[in-house]
Amino acid sequence: MPSRNKNSQRCVAATEGERSLFAASSAEGDIIRRSFRCAFAKLTIPSLPLPHSTIEGQSPLCNDIAVAADGTVFVTDSLSGRILRLRRGAGALEVWAQDARWNAKGPQLDGIAVLGDGSVYVNLFEGDGLFRVAAQPDGGAGTVTKLRTSRPLYHSDGMRAAGPNALYMVEGETKGTLDLISIQGDAATVQTVKDGFHGPVSLVQVGDTIYVLDVPLKYLFDPQFRSRMPPPFKAVGVNQPR
């Protein structure tokens, strides 16, 4: 999420089994892991630097994090065209998947989610793309498939699993929607659940409510707005569609 703080964090994800919280630093570009051992004690583990970028002129940038059922952590590296992986118990990130369609200037890979069959789904922030990366039996990355969406996607951002064959996703500024994506084979039907957001960047579901973090990114990146104080960040509750 955007912040004026030089030590700002871009995204967070938690693992239930190990009681660990992972956060991405937008200032330093690395991953921070914090493990909560009990209610009153905590252990901070040194940050995990990202592997060097493979795209000339761009530095690695973690954008979003997803945690699989077995505790494996997956990270989108927006400026390096790859998905990184942190195996459970490992002390370093490794490149898990790359694809030539992700190698472009500017922010590309963004939201990420893992569905029940172990497949990893990612979207593109600049561009129109929703991809599935199959997981091989040994945990490695398999075939990368671009899904056929029922409409074009724009400024796709945070994404979360919404069942065995569905995803919740937000589309950011100039679009401003919370979407439900239903997947059947290589096709994906995009249904708008709620629109009217100023700049949604992420979401989380708690019970029957989906909380959308509405934070216009223009206050970070648009020269006309960078000197202005952004409005308060808002977490907007939306009822789960039936």
UniProtKB/TrEMBL annotation:
Gene3D superfamilies: TolB, C-terminal domain (2.120.10.30)
This protein's name: SMP-30/Gluconolactonase/LRE-like region domain-containing protein
Species the sequence originates in: Paracraurococcus lichenis
